[in-house]
Amino acid sequence: MKIDAVRKYVMALEAVTEEPHHQSSSFRVRGKIFVTVPPCRDVIHVFVGEEDRETALALYPNFVEKLLWGGKVVGLRVVLASASANAVKSLVSKAYETRVLKDAGAKSPKPSRF
């Protein structure tokens, strides 16, 4: 899958913006990152939960690997040249949903004032 096709798909999702992120590009929903594109543009980083990461690693071992940040697994690196369009779209959608649901989660109640 080509990065232009990924961009077109991602930008069609509701409330998504594309913004710089260090030397990379990032796709965000309501300001929160769910996909980044390194300068090389031949991979994308998708940020999904642990269960979705493990499923993707099992389903797509030829083009998905763990994305580490400081020794911690934070997402997936997807090699676009080897990836099917359906798999990439599925992973991007899952990252989008994860971000939206995380932001829509229960808010802590405000402390009451006496």
Query: What is the tally of helical segments?
Result: 3
Largest sheet: 6 strands, antiparallel
CATH-defined architecture = Alpha-Beta Complex
Question: Helix and strand succession?
Answer: HEEEEHEEH
- Number of DSSP strand runs: 6
- The rough form would be described as globular
Helix amount, in percent? 25-40%
Mean pLDDT: 90
* Tally of separate domains: 1
What percentage of the residues does DSSP assign to strands (E)? 25-35%
Which structural class do you get from the secondary structure elements?
Answer: alpha+beta
Unreliable residue stretches = 106-114
Distance between the termini: 58 Å
Radius of gyration: 15 Å
Q: Which class in CATH terms?
A: Alpha Beta
Order of the strands making up the biggest sheet: 1-2-3-4-6-5
> Remind me, CATH topology?
Aspartate Aminotransferase, domain 1
